[in-house]
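question for whoever is on the cluster today: can someone run the full assembly for these? three chains, 1256 residues total. i dont have access anymore since they changed the login thing
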Amino acid sequence: MSEQAIVGTNAPRVDVRDKVTGQAQYAADVRLPGMLYGKVVRCWEHAHARVKRLDLSAAAASPGVVRVLGPKDVTPKRYNSSVLDLMVSESMHDMLGDIDDQPIFTEHVKFQGDAICGIIARSEEAAERAAAKVVVEYEPLPVYLTAEAAKAPGAVQFTPEKPGNRAFQLPEAMFPNNALGGGDVEAAMREADIVVEDAFYVPKQKQCQMEPHAYVAKVDSGGRLTCWTSSQMPKLVQRKLAKLFDLPMNLVKIVPTVIGGGFGTRLGMISEPQACAMALAVPGHPVKLQTLREEDWVISPSRHPGKYWMRIGFKRDGSPLACDARFENYKGGYYLDASGTAFTAGAWLGGMYRFPALRYRGESYFTNQGLTGAYRGYGNPQTNFVLEQLIDRACAGLGADPVEWRKKWHKGVGDDGWCPGVTYPSCALDECLDRGAAAIGWTEKRRKYARQTGTLRRGVGVAVMNHTSGAMPMLLEHTACTVKLNEDATAEILFACSDMGQGSHTALKQIAAETLGFPFEHVQLSGGTSDVAGFDIGAHASRTIYVGGAAVKKACEEVRRQLCERASLQLGVPAEQLDIRDKRIFVQADPARGIDAEAITRAGVYHFVDPATGEPGGVPGQIQGYVSFFAPHNSPPFGASFAEVEVDTETGEVRVLELVNAHDIGRAINPAAVEGQLEGGIQQGLGFVLSEEICYDADGRVQNNSFTDYKMFGPEDMPKITTILVEDADPIGPFGAKSVGESGLVSPVGAVANAIFHAIGIQFTEAPITPEKVLKGIRETGVRDYGSIGGGR
Amino acid sequence: MKNRDITLHINGEEYRLNVAVNRTLLDVLRDELGMTETKYGCGTGECGACTVLVEDKAVNSCLTLAATMDGKRITTVAGLADFGRLDHIQQAFVDEAAIQCGYCTPGMVMKTASLLAQNPDPSEAEIRHALEGNICRCTGYEKIVKAVRKAAETMPGRAAAVEPCKEVVQ
Amino acid sequence: MSSRILPDFDLLLPQSIPDAVELLSAHRDRITVMAGGTDVMVAMKFAQSPAQLPDYVMSLENVPGLAYVLFDPERGLRIGAKATVADLLAQSEVKRHYRALWHAAQTFATGQVRNTATVLGNLLRASPAGDCSCAIYAIGGVVVLHGTSGRREVDIDDFWLSYGVTARRPDELAVELILPLPAAGSRSAFKRMTRTSEDLAKLNVAVRLEMSGNTCVDARLAMGCVAPTPLRLTRTEALLKGRELTAEVLQRVAASVPWEISPIDDKRSTAEYRKQVSGVLLKRAIQEACGAA
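^ ran it for u. tokens below:
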């Protein structure tokens, strides 16, 4: 195919007219005849307790109540709301130790907000009034909020399958000595001239998607269970619900609703089991289950917090010798996603720099905090906060420029990516660093801010990152796509992977239109319900364009092949010498010779024999393309962020003045959408490093489950943003595209921390870096000119 | 009283309702009238997803008792488009790619309408100040700020707009 | 647990101030007054127990004539019970004569809340973090209350009794707030510290200075989030009065603040931090007031 007309343009987003007029239907907007309302009664008083007595009689007698459901009124089977168990082979499943430990309604409360029972009523108000009448007596249990507390001898065991409350550690069979990496770290460290080492704490961040979780579930007269949900993974939810309720998959239908923000929180299930258990109790009636914001907050998994220790050794010339790290994260009360982040935090570490020796150990411990699971970045911001600060600490000691050091030692084409054996097919990180440095005025500002006086001190900092494009080879990477041509040569595409608002369906439509040679407006793409759409693993791991786009492209290529073959019969030219543009199939060497695609598609559907000649009119059959696609590789994106900050040395307040995000995206299918991902990522990255953290009191009750008390960067807090799309086409990704969904938030974390270091000469080991911590640091060590630290410049 | 007869003028239509006094305006719009374009996001007046105009002023419908709105003129995002033709604010949000998940969008658009009614030519600082109170978790606000600016520039009858107000918010 | 559905209550809609006073008198502590409702609604949604819930909500919707913000160049500023924070900002004289209050109102909550929440409501909430309350405390003024035994004025200095408790008696309706006309040479400023721009204050401060040249003739200093109610820094005020505002005096003033306050650790900050920055914030407010003469 020659130059591209649609890929690379800001094609209009397919979903925005519905959204801007209020017509888009989110789950809470679904209204069905005869609808009942569900309410899950949750334990708000305790983070760890046993239910001694549950009395539902008053609630059952409350006006408008249809059913009350306790633990014994629903299936005794347990589930795992995460989906990692479906993404690995059975043998690996055992190795990773995934378990089903979540009951629909519990008698052992493991975190504040655990579900106790359910109410079904004729109105939401009636359900809430009845919920208030449920009587529960609890026997409080000791509350464990850290790994240290949970693994102490004598601690109450969360589940018999995980002795010592250790939910996960890197398995010996796969990672000798339970460590990821290779080489002799101890020996290498002995050779080091400079060793930097510290223990860090990384915070628990909330996705804060704007749409609180909501569901509708219904069992129809044929016994089919339908669930309206905004899960990022409708097909896996279908399988999980079928398993939980012992139904064949054809009797479980998922209707994906418009997703009001995901960021990982909708990866797998949240309250689908409760919603469906209620629907099963009242067949024929839809049940709507909506969560309150404060309820969503405690029941949906958040980013993994924990202790992160790291040490890195260098030769005097700056060459890195070894990196030794350990991340001990604090799970919530259930297993879900225990293996994921504990592994990936180390994978990103391994994928970043050319450490001759690396040893990363990752462990997850049950605690009575709220659940932890997938959150955009999935272990990467945690690693970025730690690794990138230690690199800058070393650079200060080595007298190395942080940009130059990174350019010299980052991994690139041909090096192993985050998974050994899967090499980087492309890397434009040097260009990211060069263009980002130029955009922020790196050289001049590094020099200028190295010596300062006064109350307000400025600094500039850099950080880099690598991420992933899909989860190959660690997890299943499978997507099905069907492309069908209507008789007027318009295309309808079925592709089950959700668009969470990032614009993926628009970009996929661009890929399809470009591949088919059809106008953008003549391609329709829909997610489809689970009974119609083919398999797709779901929207996670920044895979939708890289993997999904490749699947869509391949299915469209199949359609294109069929079109060209049929045209070839009429034109008398081999199919491979034909091209399609604007729905016209023509001879490459003689563009004037051609045939409209519509003539072929119409004849294929309305296939008649010419009564005069007795000859068939064209080739019969509707053209369809189908692919069941497995990603053959992984082309991770890289990124460099540059931050300029101003620190008020009297108050410790940090203002981010500018943030430059230069991103190695391969190819931007829809540049405005790509920018949107990076800009939104910055807001979440700045929150991670400066303002966001879920806090618990000593009893494990969340202290800030509202936007009043959990503070994200607002429009006035956001810095000047410069987004640089570095386009160096990847040889494997569709049209050269790599991923961008998660990675934008990662390196702003390290860049801001390093800018603070540059401004006041102090590094902070606990995120978020609040004014309280900054002022404490200043009072303890004093403000230091960066120019006076080590041999720094 | 536990219930009150009220009249609401919503998007140009008159609605005579008997509402329970403990219903918020958001409850009445969404649950009783089925006008689901206005969203519940937090219930505490922080996120602004439920923003509607009451007499041209942006308010959080989650913190407004419907029973106290008797006779009021209420505008939701569904009241802006004219049978599929977007108004200038909606069009600006579309053109500037200011919409991702879209859940905050109805509130953002209504907040913009309220801002531009008071200040037809807001500076970037004024736009950012006005948008505090509408949380977006997708966009980093960058393209939303641009969309508001574009909406100001494309406002019908802009040539006759009042003298620009350039005061910078501190 | 909290609920999106509000609890049951009876709505009362008095038509006049005497009507309202009568209802207050009849139902006393079982009644909550709603003007803007932004605080009342959240409090009802998040009430921990039925004891915290009112049986009656009295809306001032139909009480006429209370939405005014009137500036009288002879007597000062009158703010009616239904005047919203946005109404206050729309009154052009506020920015000129009561800069601290204007600034507090500017950054107060969000645009939607400013359009709904009332200035008097902020005083009546009696939160130590109220931004408008802090500014009004520094400016000074009286709250006008109407009760069964008639009208009375309570000086703002005597208005807040403890956390969430004011001098308003159960049968009284707060009708208006009157701020004095600033004397010549008077200037004021408001500053606050928050976690992000839109936030409740972790620390706020307002100053009103009567200046003669560079000499401070009189000073009122108010600080929030450092005690159960907004706090007057009277000892620190004494260090300012009659003094020329030199760097040394400002230094001494700043150093005095931590000794006058008793902040706590909470969700927004720590006691230690608040003490450490209290003097800095006050010093900056004084400097801003003088600079913005």
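summary bc i know u wont read the tokens: The longest helix of chain C spans residues 271-291. The interface with chain A takes residues 1-5, 193, 195-200, 267-270, 272-273, 276-277, 280-281 of chain C (CB under 8 Å).
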